[in-house]
TrEMBL record:
EC number(s) from the headed UniProt entry: 3.2.2.n1
Family assignment from sequence similarity: Belongs to the LOG family.
InterPro entries reported in the protein's UniProt record: LOG, LOG_fam
Enzyme class: hydrolase
Entry keyword Zinc-finger: no
Catalytic activity line of the entry: N(6)-(dimethylallyl)adenosine 5'-phosphate + H2O = N(6)-dimethylallyladenine + D-ribose 5-phosphate; 9-ribosyl-trans-zeatin 5'-phosphate + H2O = trans-zeatin + D-ribose 5-phosphate
Name recorded for this polypeptide: Cytokinin riboside 5'-monophosphate phosphoribohydrolase
Keywords: Cytokinin biosynthesis, Hydrolase
NCBIfam families: Rossman fold protein, TIGR00730 family
Organism: Streptomyces lycii
Length: 179
């Protein structure tokens, strides 16, 4: 399966790198391809190292203004013109989407993926991998949107909150179409 992963470009501590290494190993051992932002920094690098070491494939989607930081020696690397084109490419190339811990870049990607799903413009499974409870606050906010009628589709159809990599992958394997 091609699994698109959005995650932080920052250098993070063990609370976040350990779950990332665990998830990356599961992806690699499962023979999956990780589609990711292509940079060799921060959690993106932790994920790429882990997937590669465990025998998975890497498909990067970099962007012109960050292409100097792109990882070398991967199975595939394309360079999008801008962030909008890159998000569209990353969505198109994945059978399923995983959002890991991240900052504003990851938040931008996560909300666009959910918004497109809300409008029926894709129907790929989306998982928020809630390492160390990082997304507990977002979950509360989204549950309020759901309960008060803001979402137009049940929250459970838009995103699945996984507490660890194993349950994230199990959900994707059950729900990704046409693998
Ligand atoms: C040192 C250097 C030039 C780093 C390169 N930095 C980046 N490289 C690739 N994608 C990025 C970078 N910064 C943000 N992004 C995009 O935004 C997300 C991460 O942003 P953030 O760290 O969560 O807010 C990633 O999923 C990625 O798609």
């Amino acid at each position: 399966m091609n699994i698109t992963v959005f995650c932080s470009a920052a250098e993070l501590d063990e609370r976040y790198t350990a779950p990332a290494r665990e998830f990356a190993a599961l992806l690699g051992r499962g023979g999956h391809t990780m589609v990711w932002g292509g940079s060799d920094v921060g959690l993106m690098k932790v994920m790429a190292d882990g997937v590669e070491q465990a025998g998975g494939r890497l498909s990067g989607v970099s962007v012109e203004f960050l292409s100097h930081a792109a990882r070398h020696g991967v199975d595939e690397m394309i360079v999008a013109r801008d962030l909008a084109e890159r998000k569209a490419e990353m969505l198109a190339r994945g059978d399923a989407i995983v959002v890991m811990v991240g900052g504003t870049g990851t938040m931008d990607e996560a909300t666009e993926i959910m918004e497109l799903k809300k409008h029926g413009l894709h129907d790929k499974p989306v998982v928020l991998l809630n390492a160390d409870g990082f997304y507990d606050g977002l979950k509360i906010q989204l549950q309020r949107m759901d309960k008060e009628g803001f979402l137009h589709r049940p929250l459970a159809e838009l995103v699945y909150f996984a507490e660890d990599g194993a349950s994230a992958l199990a959900y994707l394997e059950e729900n990704a179409p046409g693998r």
